[in-house]
Structure formats: structure tokens, C-alpha cells
Amino acid sequence: MSDKKLSDLGLLEQDIWFNFCYYYECDLDDVSIVSENQTYIDKKEKIIKRMQQNDFSVNEERISFAEMMGSDLNIPFKPSQLAELLTQLNTLRVKVNNLPAKIFHRQYSDILIAYVQMLGGLEFIQNRTLAKSAKAIIAVKARYDKHLYPRREIIYRILREQVARHGKWKTLNQAVNFVLDDLVKAFEVYDIEWLQSELVLKQKMLSELEQESKQLYAKAQSDGVRRKPASIVKKIEKLQLELNNLNQILKAKYPSKEIEKFGYKMPYSGGYIAETIIHELRTQPMILSEIIL
User: Fold this and answer.
1) Shortest CA distance to 214 belongs to which of 228, 197, 196?
2) What is the DSSP string of 70-110?
3) Of these four, 34, 41, 106, 187, which has the most CB atoms within 10 Å of its CB?
4) What is the per-residue pLDDT across 89-114, written as a single tens digit (0 to 9) for each?
5) Cα–Cα–Cα angle for 275, 167, 179, nearest 5°?
6) How far apart are CA 29 and CA 34, in angstroms?
């Protein structure tokens, strides 16, 4: 697993260097960017320190090309911004063997998404494999974030309720472990309510699509076409599969455990729930002041 983690980190790091050297005067060539030789690693460390000071001129080739095209050269990032991402990657690399896969993936995804946002779009990623991975991560994050705020509010509510009853805790670990069982139960209630609402929504969508399909089929027959439009058939099949999955999850003994098996990502679920919540709460000084002595 560590090899895969290191490979992902290396791929992202290389792409950052390639984009930096594309826009700025940089004495790293393609070989030195991908090399793991200590000499080149030390060289990159020195460059990062200069990047932090924005001590780089714009690549003359980019300026000349922009002038030839009669346009302004718009560089989407400053060297210091990429230096911050490279520093975060190096920090993550040091911890790679000690982090659970879920927490590593979250931190790596945050860096990758920040990189895409900095560039201004997926199309500016040099490596196609990395771009494909980023696209998938962004799509998952969009679905994940929909649940992040309400589940985070569940955590805050339960912590505050327990503080009101028992007082503050000495450490964050004590606080999270004290309320963990209550949190798991609350998340299970949330999951079932979401699954039921999603089931109703998908059933409505399927009914509307099937009605639309009948109308289109009737029109197609009057035009001499004997088959339904392929696009709407695929949409119906996809919805039917989703409905089947949702029904299976709801019928399971422990729906919350089944959700992830079918590709639905919920914040603070699966393994390492306590560790994930602790990591999250460390970035929230307001709630920490309410629950820790």
C-alpha cells in the first residue's frame, strides 16, 4: 500500500514541478524532475526556498509565445503557492507509513484539489493519469461534501450535549472516545434517513424518465423508427441499478456498513472514525475551546 501512496505523491509532485518550470525560469530538466537521486532532491529543496520568496522570473519562451499570439501572459499561480503544495507533499511523504489509508487519501486529495483550483482547471494538469485521478476525486468530493456539514453538526451537537451534562474533557482524545458510541448511532440514523429520501427521489426520477421514454417511443414509431432512444434507455437502466442498490442497503442488518460497499461515501464512516474526527476537530479552535479544559 505504501508503494501506491508514494507513487501517487511522486506523480503529483512531478506535475507541480513541470508546471512551475513551464511558466518560470527553472534550471530543472525533465530528468532531474523525476529523478530520486539525492543530488536532485537537495537541488529541489533549495529551489523551494527561493519559490517561497517568489524569487523567479517568468519563462522567456512563454512571454515570446504570448507576444506572438497577441495576448497577455496570464500565469495562474505564484511560485510561493506551488512551494506550499510541495512542502505539504513532503510532510505527507514523511508520515506515509504511519497514516491509515483513509486519512492519507483525504490529505492527498486535499492537496490535489488545491492544485487543480490553483491551475484553474483539470486541463492544465500535464499528466493524463493524474488528471483522470483528479477528476474522479473532485466528483467524489462533491458528493461527499453534501454530507459533510450536517454530519459535522451532529458531532458538534453531541459534544456540546455531553459537556452540558458532564463538563469538559482534559484531552481531545478523551472527548471523542467518550461520545463515539453516541456519534455512531446518530450517524446510523442520518444514513437511513438519507437512504430513504434518496430512494423516493430516484423513484420519482425513474417514473418521469419512463413516461418520457413512452412519449419518445410513440413519436419515434410515428416517424418510422422502431427502437427507443439509446440515451434514455441507459439513464433508465442506471436509475434501476441505483434503486436496486438503495433497496439492498436499506434491507441490510447494518445499512451504514453497507453504504460504502456500493460506492456511497459518507464523512466520518468506516474504519478509523475516531482518528478522522480528532483530525477534523484539531482544525476547529472554536469547538475545541468549548469542550477541552
Assistant:
1) 228
2) T-----S--HHHHHHHHHHHHHHHHHTTTS-HHHHHHHHHH
3) 187
4) 999 988 888 888 878 888 999 999 99
5) 30
6) 9
| Grid cell locating 128 | 493524463
Q: Pick the closest to residue 121 from 131, 133, 109 (CA basis).
A: 131
pTM of the complete model: 0.61
What was the pLDDT predicted at 171? 93
Which residue shows C-alpha cell 432512444?
229
Is residue 292 helix, strand or coil?
strand
DSSP state of 24: B
Smallest CA-to-CA distance from 180 within 285, 60, 281 is with: 281
Instruction: Give residue 54's pLDDT band: very low, low, confident or very high (50, 70, 90).
Output: confident
The more confident residue out of 143 and 118 is: 118
Q: Which residue has the cell 446510523?
A: 188
Residue type, 66: A
Q: Is residue 225 helix, strand or coil?
A: coil
Distance (Å, rounded) from C-alpha 193 to C-alpha 183?
15
